[in-house]
Amino acid sequence: MRSVPEHQEHVNALFASPRTVTLPANEALGRVLAEDITATVALPGFDNSAMDGYAVQAADIAAATDDEPVILPVVEDIPAGRTDHLTLSAGTAHRIMTGAPLPAGADAVIQVEKTDGGVDEVRIYSAVSKGAAIRSAGSDIAPGRIALTAGRVLHAPQLGLLAALGLAHVQVFAPLRVLVLSTGSELVPAGTPLDHGQIYESNGAMLTAAAAEAGAVAEQVHFVPDSVDEFRARLDDYVDREQGADLIITSGGVSAGAYEVVKDALTGHGVEFTKVAMQPGMPQGCGHYTSAAGTAVPIITLPGNPVSAQVSFEVFVRPPLRAAMGLPRRRRTAHARVTESFTSPPGKRQFRRGELEIVGGEPTVAPIGPPGSHHLAFMASANALLDIAADVERVEAGSIIEALLLED
Ligand SMILES: Nc1nc2c(c(=O)[nH]1)N[C@H]1C(S)=C(S)[C@@H](COP(=O)(O)OP(=O)(O)OC[C@H]3O[C@@H](n4cnc5c(N)ncnc54)[C@H](O)[C@@H]3O)O[C@H]1N2
Ligand code: MOO
Q1: Mutate to test the pocket of ligand 2, among 7, 251, 308, 349 (most ligand atoms within 8 A of CB)
Q2: What does the pLDDT look like over 200-240, one tens digit per residue?
Q3: Which of 43, 182, 194, 325 is the most exposed place for a label (fewest CB within 10 A)?
Q4: CA dist 399 to 313, 337, 339, Å?
Q5: pTM
Q6: Nearest Cα residue to 249 out of 197, 214, 277
Q7: Which one of 3.30.470.20, 2.170.190.11, 2.60.40.3080, 3.10.300.10 gives the CATH number of domain 48-135?
């Protein structure tokens, strides 16, 4: 049997370095910048008002008080969006709105609440210091400065900044297209009545979501029955399409039974099947599948038991899939105190599902459900995987173990 790190190496080798692609900025959410972004404009682009109020010369209202307001004529009205160049003369005020360009000659803005709000003339009840309520050009970022560096994941604030800089396109690492294919004659799609012996297909939905959550563009292929010819024909249809796949993930049909369609169809076609010393997720396979027309695509064949499929995705697929898109490969981990004792199979690395909580400031983790790989409901209530080394056969309550955090 391979160890987990040995099989990880085989899977990692299937992935190429990240490709770059230029995308419209509004399609780049979650992608990773492949280039430094230099500001070509200043932010703010011009001196402007931080308040609704009146642009003035601070010296003109230095003596203003509640009892003895300073009265100034209002000679301009400047809403945001006014594009002409204005100049304020000493002894006058311009009514100005937040974000509107400051007239030349003004050196402060007095907010409207400290005035009577006059339109023709304004009574000002308070002094301000020079520069008050002015947002000066370039005070956020000056032209020529690096606004975002390559490697940055683009979340909402970064996309906002790109938009503020007027950038419509951005060079990022390309998302990978992942095809998720489930096999098994017992599988029935949701919405169909079940006969005895049939189950609803769930790995497809789960792995498609997992790949999408990892940042890929994932497509689920309706499962195919346990027929080798049909399986390969279906696979070739997808692999040879114009917009083919960068990676295929299958689930099921890889263990030791009489009808292991994935194994039977792909053995001798560039895919190596193996056992990995882990629980769940022992039967694994990976390689490059080549279609009848000669298209070669990396393929990872995960075991069919739902918990095995999901844990295998976490352990083998997610890290290199993310790295191939320039995304951070590792999830966060925590060292947590175990709340109850449990056993672990000898000679196998175990990934037990658990619930991590912070109790009294300390991370604690409780195993969730039994170790069996069909316990999808238990897995769905877990937020962590407990990583137990192959040489550990019993984990005692109170000991500290490493937990992989499955949620932010
Ligand atoms: N004689 C042996 N039997 C088994 C071994 C073994 O070494 N020797 N390994 C066991 C282990 S461990 C696992 S894990 C499973 C893996 O089996 P397969 O990958 O061949 O998966 P299937 O047999 O097709 O299905 C297993 C189980 O999962 C259900 N399943 C499959 N696909 C889906 C799906 N898309 N949605 C929901 N559920 C799915 C399927 O109905 C089976 O119950 O093999 C053990 N057996
Ligand atoms: O090792 Mo299998 O993947 O748990 O049931």
Answers
A1: 308
A2: 999 999 999 999 999 999 999 876 667 788 888 888 988 89
A3: 194
A4: 27, 6, 8
A5: 0.90
A6: 214
A7: 2.170.190.11
